[in-house]
């Protein structure tokens, strides 16, 4: 059974930083592309960042240069470091996994999802 568990969300002031972590189990983590998405009420799930098996990555334009995605294949974890946070970054952040090793930016291309962690950025 695949399980993705996010942690690290919370309340932060604008301009601050936050690190989200995702612990994965039950899948071939080292060959899985791992992504982060976010969602606000009434909106579709939005791509944030993705990292593939070899460390190649991609970011949404809205977070590029403020965000770093990384992975530890020994610990089966993926991390999202977010800096210079803005109120518009407020959302529930989801960790997602693909059985494919290639990068993907659409939610429908992911096979497994975590329960999400709330990030709130106050102005």
Amount of helix: under 10%
User: Cα-atom Rg, whole angstroms?
Assistant: 13 Å
Order of helices and strands: EEEEEEEEEEE
The helix count comes to 0
Overall morphology: globular
Largest beta-sheet details: 7 strands, mixed
Helix/strand class: mainly beta
Query: Mean pLDDT, rounded to whole units?
Result: 97
> N- to C-terminal separation?
40 Å
Number of strands: 11
Can you walk through the features of this model?
- The protein is an all-beta fold and 123 residues long.
- Helices cover 0% and strands 48% of the residues.
- The protein is built from no helices and eleven strands.
- The strands form two sheets. Strands 2, 4, 5, 6, 9, 10 and 11 form a seven-stranded mixed sheet that branches.
- Strand 7 and strand 8 form a beta hairpin.
- The chain is globular and about 40 Å long.
- It starts with a strand and ends with a strand.
- The model has no long low-confidence stretch (mean pLDDT 97).
List the topology elements.
Layout: E1 3-7, E2 10-13, E3 18-25, E4 34-39, E5 46-51, E6 57-59, E7 67-72, E8 77-82, E9 91-97, E10 112-113, E11 117-122
Parallel strand pairs: 2-11
Antiparallel strand pairs: 1-3, 3-8, 4-5, 4-9, 5-6, 7-8, 9-10, 9-11
């Amino acid at each position: 059974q695949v399980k993705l568990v996010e942690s690290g969300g919370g309340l932060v002031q604008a301009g601050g930083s936050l690190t989200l972590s995702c612990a994965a189990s039950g899948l071939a983590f080292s060959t899985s592309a791992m992504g982060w998405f976010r969602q606000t009420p009434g909106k579709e799930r939005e791509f944030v960042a993705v990292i593939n098996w070899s460390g190649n990555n991609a970011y949404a334009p809205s977070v590029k240069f403020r965000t770093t995605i990384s992975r530890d294949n020994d610990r089966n974890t993926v991390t999202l470091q977010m800096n210079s946070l803005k109120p518009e970054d407020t959302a529930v952040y989801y960790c997602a996994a693909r059985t494919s090793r290639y990068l993907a930016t659409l939610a429908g291309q992911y096979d497994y999802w975590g329960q999400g962690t709330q990030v709130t950025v106050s102005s």
